[in-house]
């Protein structure tokens, strides 16, 4: 959090600018009038949930109240500061809920979690990160104070929200943040009622992606098996079970391809396709974008991993993405095609796909290690790098 007095001063300044009384802002933000007066005077610190509520009521970004929007700071510097607050909330998961927070109704919280994931999947990490600490505090309060099915739903939403910290941790180069977030995701998922099995299986898939980056395939297989164990006893009516099962098969296909087993990779892709026929295109369940398109995208990935670059390009160039498909998945597809073209010594086509990835999800392309690897290879194999390639390299700070 920002300094106690400074946060209170900013709230008071914006409140007066909006011509609101303290009673008026307290009512709009659904916070205690007494607490508001103490925060504004600097005699009481503002919690994450309190700041988030005031920011919503005042119609400003949370970073404005916290003073983290200095224009002279780079995007990554600002993001690093924001993630410090996210870490704090992840660390305080086992404390009693913040008594100053009155959670919003369940449909409103469900939409808030959906929006956070939409923003994250668009690689707009600087917009997502400031929202997470307050959202975590609010969902934590709801999960600990509500009863019945609402309580289980709140735990499920908290698990989905923790996934957002994994998303930004992986993208921004903070693997430790990703690890903590996925641990918290499983902790919340265990208490999510009938959504628990699939949420926990989805978490195992996300862990697999981290170990794929480390080339630790043995651990990847252990996690894949753990995910399947979570789904034992479920059926197609179990919320999210088909999606989690299908995605685990896609993970297994990539693991098989990484270890050179083309036959097993094909079998897992075919099994994933069977699930995709049942689910259709499902963008939002666990934010995997699971469905026939994602299976096709993974066919391209496995071909590239197996060294079959020409066939990967032939298939990948003709994939049509459904309207509204996840920008980060589209961006990653173009990373993969750029890698295939680079391996075939076709630098212009490789750069073309890197440029498309930049247009689709710039926050992802600028940070992703796959992009950096392809650009570095293009620079090293070119006697006279083009101006476009040089600019791209400068853009990713290479």
UniProtKB/TrEMBL annotation:
Pfam families for this protein: HTH_31
Lineage: Bacteria, Bacillati, Actinomycetota, Actinomycetes, Propionibacteriales
SMART domains found in the cross-reference section: HTH_XRE
InterPro entries the UniProt entry points to: Cro/C1-type_HTH, Lambda_DNA-bd_dom_sf, TPR-like_helical_dom_sf
Name by which UniProt lists this protein: Transcriptional regulator with XRE-family HTH domain
Residue span, HTH cro/C1-type domain: 11-65
PROSITE patterns, A to Z: HTH_CROC1 (PS50943)
Top-rank lineage group of the source organism: Bacteria
GO molecular function terms attached to this record: DNA binding
